[in-house]
Design a protein that fits this description.
alpha/beta, 2 domains, binds ligand ME8, single chain, 4-stranded antiparallel beta sheet, Isoleucyl-tRNA Synthetase, Domain 1, cytoplasm, 17 helices, 6-stranded parallel beta sheet, MetRS_core, ligase, elongated, Rossmann fold, aminoacyl-trna synthetase, ATP binding, 14% strand
């Protein structure tokens, strides 16, 4: 679809598959998917990549702990990440696993480009290393752990480590990085994260240790026996691997530079400092934007028996429905900030917005059409100012406010605009009371139903990036042609192309059954 559109490349972080995916992973994958689907709806030619980051000491240690190999652990756990994406309707184009051959080639190629630019040299490294963060820290970056010891700024344990290592001249890029943040503030969003990074870079960058000799699980450093790359060097390169780098003629290279690297707030430094510096060194254009989203916290401390382990995203999807979960996560969390979830909050939001407001609207109107018009499309007998006012409200909310908000990654605001349109439709139903018109003015009744049919179809199209399966089911049920299912394709009087003349709207099944929490959860 939209093969002619402008390319748009979006990536998530690639997850460490040292365990099963948790709700934070699901959150990031869903948010990226909503953006990818939204951009497709806007006519962009989208490429969407996600996957797993299998190298590094963290994976190695976990494999040892489990008495297996890192490769076996990576293969097994990556499967769960892929299954999670499939179950949550995440429409990725490539699921990369960094043990793949093309990824080793790409990582070695970027290494050689940095080396050719004179930015890599061999030396000895001594420093505080955190296995959990896969990062070295300087003495003055460590913080008190409250028990007389020191931990990393992320609160993870550190150990003094000495090894021969390749270094990358990160310090050389300090000024260019500062100029980047200053001249292209959109490169790093939200603003609060950029401010943190600017002060970090201003405080002075040191050469970065970029190889390890104490283990061999990783991408081999070209021409340097015994060295594997620091996991972040290869991990970041995944974004290029997926486009065929270093083959400049690969057709997928049209997607570079990436439009958006969507990542969590804890790994902003790697994406907004190291990554652009590596790319500058290798002479590769920089991504347009890095966005650091917030963390999702389980504030509903209490685990629920019926939901099982509520941190398991699959269990949440089973309990509430995939679209209900997707909608909740985007509606409830102000994108960029931290958010929390609980079974009660998910049920409440899904019931209020999806079941009661939108689902009920569609249900009432379509059943009425099925029953009273034999499922045929109602005829328009001239629109009144009330109809025009509804169309104007829809246009403002769905074609102006929602796309603007989604385009700026203000996802919850986009959903607020959508709800304004739903409320406008419900108010119109109450005012126009089509059921009463059945006896008094059947022609006007048809026009009102036609107006609402158009409105419901537009609402379904606009929300389709967030609740793709439900929106598709509804649009299919309504007989809306595929080629008008786009925001740019919406017209105020979009009607006749909707369905072929033989199409009949049947009695609809409820799209969003009300979620009832067992008493133990609701308490
Ligand atoms: O950091 N809420 O992998 P990862 C929201 N392999 N997002 C969360 C979260 C939470 N509670 N917990 C984690 C890595 N995340 C590296 C990335 S990219 C080249 C390499 C986010 O499995 C986290 O911020 O620890 C990151 O964006 C993603 O999940 C994967 O985290």
């Amino acid at each position: 679809m939209n093969a002619m559109g402008e390319p748009y490349y979006i990536t998530t972080a690639i997850s460490y598959p040292n365990g099963r995916p948790h709700i934070g992973h699901a959150y990031e994958a869903i948010a990226a998917d909503v953006i990818a689907r939204f951009q497709r709806l806007m006519g962009r030619d989208v490429r969407f990549q996600t996957g797993t980051d299998v190298h590094g000491l963290k994976m190695l240690q976990k494999a040892r702990e489990l008495g297996t190999t890192p490769r076996a652990l990576a293969d097994e756990m990556s499967q769960y990440f892929k299954e999670m994406c499939d179950r949550l309707d995440v429409s990725y184009d490539r699921f990369i696993q960094t043990s793949e051959d093309d990824h080793h080639r790409a990582s070695q190629a970027i290494w050689q480009a940095m080396e050719a630019n004179g930015d890599l040299y061999l030396d000895r490294y001594e420093g505080w290393y955190s296995v959990r963060d896969e990062a070295y820290y300087a003495e003055d970056e460590l913080v008190d752990n409250g028990q007389g010891g020191k931990v990393s700024p992320q609160g993870t344990p550190v150990e003094w480590t000495v090894e021969e290592s390749w270094f990358f001249r990160l310090d050389k890029y300090q000024d260019r990085l500062l100029a980047l943040y200053e001249e292209q503030p959109e490169f790093l969003q939200p603003d609060s994260r950029r401010n943190e990074i600017v002060s970090f870079v201003k405080s002075g960058l040191r050469p970065l240790s970029v190889s390890r000799t104490s283990f061999d699980w990783g991408v081999k450093v070209p021409g340097s026996d015994g060295h594997v790359m620091y996991v972040w060097v290869d991990a970041l390169t995944n974004y290029l691997t997926g486009l065929g780098y270093p083959d400049a003629n690969d057709p997928l290279m049209k997607y570079w530079p990436a439009d958006l690297h969507l990542i969590g707030k804890d790994i902003v430094r790697f994406h907004a400092v190291y990554w652009p510096a590596f790319l500058m060194s290798a002479g590769i254009p920089l991504p347009r934007q890095v966005f650091g989203h917030g963390f999702l916290l389980n504030k509903g401390e209490k685990m629920s028996k019926s939901v099982g382990n509520v941190v398991d995203p699959m269990a949440l999807a089973d309990a509430f429905g995939v679209d209900q979960l997707r909608y909740f996560l985007l509606r409830e969390v102000s994108f960029g900030q931290d958010g929390s979830y609980s079974p009660e909050a998910i049920a409440q939001r899904a019931n209020a917005d999806l079941a009661n407001s939108f689902g009920n609207l569609a249900q009432r109107i379509l059943s009425f059409i099925a029953k009273n018009l034999d499922g045929t499309l109602p005829a328009v007998h001239g629109h009144t100012p009330a109809d025009e006012a509804l169309f104007a409200a829809l246009e403002e909310a769905l074609q102006r406010d929602l796309p603007k908000a989604f385009g700026e990654l203000a996802l919850s605001q986009g959903l607020e605009a959508w709800m304004r349109a739903v409320f406008a439709c419900n108010a119109y139903v109450d005012e126009q009371a089509p059921w009463a018109l059945k006896k008094t003015d059947p022609e006007r009744m048809q026009t009102v139903l036609a107006t609402l049919y158009i409105a419901i179809a537009q609402l379904a199209v606009a929300i389709s990036p967030v609740i793709p399966a439900s929106a598709k089911a509804l649009l299919d049920h309504m007989g809306v042609a595929d080629d008008v299912r786009s925001i740019t394709g919406m017209r105020t009087h979009w009607y006749s192309p909707l369905a072929d003349s033989d199409f009949r709207i049947g009695a609809p099944k409820p799209l969003f059954p009300r979620i009832e929490l067992p008493a133990e959860d609701a308490a």
